[in-house]
Amino acid sequence: MRLNGLERIWVALPKRPIYSGSLDIMLFKLDPNSPKFEVFVRLNEELLHFLEHAIAGGNFKRSLLTSSDVGQACWNNFKAPRAKNDLTRDKFKKLFVELKNETQNNRQRLFDTVESHQDLSAFFTAPNRTLLSFLSTNTFNALKALMTHLYCSTKDLTGVIAGSNGQCINTHFNNFRQKNGLVCLACGMEQLAPFRANVENENQWRADYDHQLCKSKYPIYAVHPDNLIPLCRVCNQDAKKAKDLFECSNGLRRFALNPSTEDAQNFLTVEIENLLDPEPKAVLKWNTRNAATLDKLNTWDDVYEIRNRVEGKYISIVNVIQDEINPSNAQELDVGVQSKARPVNANTLKRKEWALWEQKVFSAINAVDKLAFWAQLEFSNEQGEEGGEYIIQGI
Question: How does DSSP assign 356-382, residue by residue?
Answer without folding.
Answer: HHHHHHHHHHHTS-THHHHHHHHHHHH
